[in-house]
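Changelog note: in this version the structure field was regenerated for every chain. One regenerated record is shown below for reference.
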Amino acid sequence: MRFKLVRSLLTSALFAVAAASVSLSYAGTPSAADVKQVATMQSSGALLLDVREADEYAQGHAPGAILIPLGQLDQRLTEIARYKNQPVALICRSGKRSAKAQKLLEQAGFSATFNVEGGMIAWQKSGLPVVLGATPR
């Protein structure tokens, strides 16, 4: 009887430690990233998704950013489906539209989304390269 009680307590304790570990690792997963982190992520193969409108994109965007305006994102998810289990950084002018886009992607099952803190405003202020007048992809 005593053995069963000890075993039960140990099992419960191990379960609690494992659950706490999973919670901590999930809670520690950033859902936002600064522009320098995003530039590094992008150079390692992450998708940088610009959710502004085409005219905003043409006025200046991050090199390699793919344009899918927020209002079209839910209809165009198939275009980025291959990134479902890879890092996807979302950028807009300031970070508000990209936060909405992030929620949409998370609801669609994208597992590693990051909102670019400060958006293109922060990107430009940091001195990172900006492409002007390019045709959206």
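Spot check on this record: The chain has two domains: 1-30, 31-137. Confidence is low (pLDDT under 50) at residues 5-29.
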